[in-house]
Amino acid sequence: MVKYFGYLITEGWLHQKALDLGYPPAQTPEDSHNLLCMVPLNVMAAAGVLSYARVRRIKTPKGKHFWCIALACDDPITVGERMSTHAPPEANYKALKEAMGKDGPAHWYRAR
Questions:
Q1: Its domain of life (predicted)?
Q2: 8 Å CB contact between 88 and 72
Q3: Which spans in the chain are helix H?
Q4: What pLDDT does residue 1 have?
Q5: Domain residues of the chain, as ranges?
Q6: I want to staple 74 with a disulfide (CB 3.0 to 4.6 A). Which of 3, 15, 86, 92 is the partner?
Q7: 3-class SS at 109?
Q8: Confidence band, pLDDT 50/70/90 cuts, at residue 60
Q9: Residue-wise burial string across 19-57, b where 16 or more C-beta atoms lie within 10 A, e elsewhere
């Protein structure tokens, strides 16, 4: 099973960040999907990780499903997506960490 190294995207973070970026509040499931497509890309671009980060669906150890801004992956086949198989130094994704309001380093999560 593939594992991704990154930060979870929660519904609360997604909708608050969308408002911070000037997007209108989501009114429908389609609006929420559009925010999921646009907001993480804006944040990754601003944090300077857009060239190697990807948004992926993951499953936490407790079995909950989330979206994740992934910075690396442990599957060599996925390297074709230009993702490293090793977690980058925290200094490389510090701006992303700050933009997401996270306190600690990113974590490894398995794909759903």
A1: Eukaryota
A2: yes
A3: 11-20, 29-47, 94-99
A4: 81
A5: 3-111
A6: 3
A7: strand
A8: confident
A9: eeeebeebeeeeebeebbeebbebbbeebebeebbbbbe
d(CA 87, CA 107) in angstroms, rounded, equals 9
- On whether the CB atoms of residues 106 and 87 are closer than 8 A, the answer is yes
The answer to whether 21 and 42 have CB atoms below 8 angstroms apart is: yes
pTM here is 0.89
| Cβ-Cβ contacts under 8 Å for 87 (sequence gap 6 or more) | 5, 71, 72, 106, 108
**11-35 per-position pLDDT tens digit:** 889 999 999 999 999 899 898 889 9
Cα angle 16, 19, 21; round to 5: 110
Rounded to 5 degrees, φ, ψ at 34 are -60, -40
* pLDDT, position 72: 93
